Amino acid sequence: MRILFRCYNCEAINEIPDKYKHRFCRSCGNIVTYISGEAIVCEKSSSNCDDFLEAKTLDENLAEKFFMIADSHIDLISNLIEEHAQKQIELPDVPSASLTETVLHLLKTNLSGTLDDLIKRCDLFDIGLSKLEKIISQMIKEGLVYLPQSWLLSLT
User: Fold this and answer.
1) I need a surface site. Which of 20, 90, 101, 115 has the fewest CB within 10 A?
2) Taking the mean position of all CA atoms in its chain, how far away is CA 96?
């Protein structure tokens, strides 16, 4: 199963497997997530999903079709969001350091390598999404991390 949703920054259609919540937008690179009313759940081999993904952004006809499906998937998406919210994260012991060093330390102790886990851990240290985007972008430029998938982050 996979989830399709619009980036709230550039309106590009993104997909993510159902066990993840956050990813980097394939168009603008911002960290995006799905919300009820703006996302649909598809089977892996659904041609409807492929139509939306190939379009990248929605024209009038595709938008009508997408949001009709999204309206019928509100409960399903809400349940997935609730499941993610209930996942517990352990507070790691991080030596006081710069924000970049803190994020790097959190990445080293994040065994799953998921963006979801990193965001939850950063929230515990009051590192907001916009700060985290900038830090990750800088670390990618410096070659410290890379994205094997748009929802996974790995150290080089």
Assistant:
1) 90
2) 27
User: Could you tell me if 23 and 12 are in contact, meaning their C-beta atoms sit under 8 angstroms apart?
Assistant: no
Domain ranges in the chain?
A: 2-86, 99-155
Hey, what amino acid is at 125? F
Between CA 151 and CA 147 the distance in angstroms is 8
Q: pLDDT at position 95, please?
A: 66
Q: 119-128 — which CB contacts under 8 Å span 24+ positions? A: 119/22, 119/31, 120/87, 120/89, 121/89, 121/91, 121/92, 124/89, 124/91, 125/94, 127/99, 127/102, 127/103
Q: How confident is the model over 81-119, as pLDDT tens digits?
A: 888 888 766 666 666 678 888 888 888 887 778 899 888
User: What pairs with residue 39 in β-bridges?
Assistant: 5
74 touches 36 (CB < 8 A): yes
Integer angstrom CA distances of residue 88 from 56, 81, 117: 34, 14, 9
